[in-house]
Amino acid sequence: MLTLASKLKRDDGVRGLRASNPASDSTRRVSVRDKLLVKEVAELEANLPCTCKVNFPDPNKLHYFQLTVIPDEGYYQGGKFQFEIEVPDAYNMVPPKVKCLTRIWHPNITETGEICLSLLREHSIDGTGWAPTRTLK
């Protein structure tokens, strides 16, 4: 997402102008999560299939976005499914929180939209849970 990357550069420039005031510098630091998300969201958008679309309600908040999936084949063909993705502050040590906003019958999605996948769990019995080497893609 280019808007946040340019915002971060602009903030760095403003920070350079305010170097005489160290208190303002410490309050405007960019989190590790946000630095990772700039790169990962750009990669995600570049490699997203044509049946998926990412929507950022607030372009300055890369840690919250929605994913719309419209399958073009299979059992769910013609459906439109929306997912809400929220990336916690401790990302990439903890997985993103994913919730299905569309009511659907699926063995891995509860009635309230919670996603049940070991990949999205911080700790998993089978060892396939979240790891810091994984990305949003």
Structure in words:
Pathway: Protein modification; protein neddylation. Keywords: ATP-binding, Nucleotide-binding, Transferase, Ubl conjugation pathway. One of its GO terms (molecular function) is NEDD8 conjugating enzyme activity. The structure is a single chain. The protein is of the alpha+beta class. It has a domain at 32-120: Roll (Ubiquitin Conjugating Enzyme), CATH 3.10.110. The chain is 28% helix and 15% strand. The chain is built from three helices and four strands. The protein has helices spanning 2-17, 22-27, 32-47; strands at 52-55, 64-69, 81-86, 97-100. The protein has a four-stranded antiparallel beta sheet with strand order 1-2-3-4, with no helix packed on it. A hairpin with an 8-residue loop joins strand 1 (52-55) and strand 2. It starts with a helix and ends in a 37-residue tail after the last strand. The model is unreliable at 22-26 (pLDDT under 50).
